[in-house]
Amino acid sequence: MEVEQYRREREQEFQSKQQAAMGSQGNLSAEVEQATRRQVQGMQSSQQRNRERVLAQLLGMVCDVRPQVHPNYRIAA
After folding, report:
1. What pLDDT, on the 0 to 100 scale, is given for residue 48?
2. What is the greatest pairwise CA distance in the chain?
3. Which of 28, 30, 55, 74 has the smallest number of CB atoms closer than 10 Å to its CB?
4. Coiled-coil segments, which residues (predicted)?
5. Three-state secondary-structure class, residue 17
6. Mean pLDDT computed over 3-31
7. Please, where are the H alpha helices in the chain?
8. What are phi and psi of 73, to 5 degrees?
9. Does the pLDDT of residue 19 top 90, yes or no?
10. What is the pTM of this model?
11. Is the pLDDT of residue 75 over 90?
């Protein structure tokens, strides 16, 4: 009977220590999740702000073609 009581006490101590350790990991994972969400929201808002400017820049580079002879081109005589 004493052995069983001792085992239950140790089991309760183990459970409380395990809960304390897992609780701190749970808080840590929640903090990481929040930080990740903030970073993703920041990237999305940055993308929304700069989307038009980047699109105009890309279209300007693609559509504004200036034909010219490459400096390394040699005319064969």
Report:
1. 94
2. 109
3. 74
4. none
5. helix
6. 82
7. 2-63
8. -75, 130
9. no
10. 0.47
11. no
